């Protein structure tokens, strides 16, 4: 995730409305699938660490908003061994 400013840079603003532009490309065949996506998000809201404790001892995450970019590649391979047996292997990699 690359952070590029956001509501924290705008004095007096406490709300955030995420807006995104996204693209996804997927190739599917019987035995496999491979895909990629790219998201460009304005005012992405996320939980920051550390969480804070309230007066009752409960922990609450601190939230922030910032512009972000996510990209990903993912894939899945399936193999059927018989009528009742099959194996699926999948994975993905997210780039920030």
Describe this structure in words.
The protein is mostly beta strands and 96 residues long. The protein has one domain (7-95). The chain is built from no helices and 4 strands. Strand 1 and strand 2 (32-53) form a beta hairpin. The protein is elongated.
How would you summarize what this structure contains?
With 96 residues, this protein is mainly β. Helices cover 0% and strands 67% of the residues.
Task: Give the secondary structure arrangement, pairings included.
Elements: E1 19-28, E2 32-53, E3 59-80, E4 86-95
Antiparallel strand pairs: 1-2, 2-3, 3-4
How many structural domains? 1
Range of helix content:
under 10%
Structural class, please? mainly beta
**In one word, what is the shape?**
elongated
Largest sheet: 4 strands, antiparallel
**Gap between N and C termini:** 3 Å
The helix tally amounts to 0
The tally of strands reads 4
- How much is the average pLDDT? 82
Cα-atom radius of gyration: 20 Å
Order of strands, widest sheet? 1-2-3-4
* Model regions low in confidence, pLDDT < 50 over at least 5 residues: 1-8
């Amino acid at each position: 995730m690359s952070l590029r400013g956001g509501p924290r840079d705008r004095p007096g603003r406490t709300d955030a409305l995420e807006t995104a532009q996204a693209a996804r490309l997927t190739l599917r065949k019987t035995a496999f699938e491979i895909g990629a996506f790219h998201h460009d998000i304005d005012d992405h809201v996320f939980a920051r660490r550390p969480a804070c404790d309230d007066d009752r001892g409960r922990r609450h995450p601190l939230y922030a908003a910032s512009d972000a970019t996510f990209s990903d590649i993912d894939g899945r391979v399936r193999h059927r061994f018989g009528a009742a047996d099959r194996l699926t292997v999948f994975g993905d990699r997210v780039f920030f």
